[in-house]
TrEMBL record:
Cofactor or coenzyme needed: Mg(2+)
Family matches, as SUPFAM superfamilies: Nudix
Domain Nudix hydrolase, chain residue ranges per copy: 39-169
Pfam families: NUDIX
Organism: Umezawaea endophytica
Sorted UniProt keywords: Hydrolase
Protein name in UniProt: NUDIX hydrolase
GO molecular function: hydrolase activity
Length: 185
């Protein structure tokens, strides 16, 4: 009896490990050294979390002077969505089932930070009780704030403000938006 090399065609969902195994052996370089010369980008996943009044949950990092949204940079071999869920859990103690992807934004190099892809996922709307109960669970953070975009504007990078405006539009429209430095294309 021949085994189906694509078990998913039989209706069974594959695990990530099975998907990797189906790709075959790791690729080797046709031209040795080419992979090490390719540029590296970082990726980060953030959650758009709102309260019942439509305000956005911002975190107050201790390691920079501006506010950010919950989430963070991916670890090696970690997807942006998995990084976002991990970081939200570490930072806020929340076990969220993130919703759909709202925004993919390319951000250029800035000082020591290489260019990156920023992903924003819909974290949903917290009930009044959930919003009141959210607490910092990570020493990297100095606090939390629920703010409107207008209130947040002087406290965030302009590119994040643009990205969050796009995320709110995407949440309302049901469409995912691609942007470069917070400007839709």
């Amino acid at each position: 009896m021949k085994t189906d090399p694509h078990p998913q065609s039989a209706g069974d969902p594959l695990t990530f490990a099975q998907d990797v195994a189906l790709e075959g052996p790791p690729e080797v370089e046709f031209n040795p050294g080419i992979a090490s010369r390719l540029p590296a980008k970082s990726s980060a996943g953030g959650a758009l979390l709102r309260d019942g009044q439509g305000r956005i949950l911002f975190v107050v990092p201790r390691y920079k002077t501006v506010l950010d949204i919950p989430g963070g940079i991916t670890d090696d071999n970690e997807s942006p969505k998995a990084a976002c869920q991990r970081e939200v859990s570490e930072e806020l103690g929340l076990r969220l089932e993130l919703g759909r992807l709202l925004v993919v934004d390319w951000v250029p190099r800035n000082g020591v930070w290489r260019d990156s892809h920023q992903f924003i996922f819909d974290g949903g709307v917290l009930t009044d009780e959930e919003a009141a109960a959210v607490q910092v669970h990570d020493e990297e953070l100095g606090g939390l704030k629920f703010l409107s975009l207008d209130e947040a504007a002087p406290q965030v990078h302009p590119s994040l403000l643009r990205r969050l405006k796009l995320a709110l539009a995407a949440a309302d429209s049901g469409q995912t938006i691609y942007a470069e430095f917070g400007r839709p294309l």
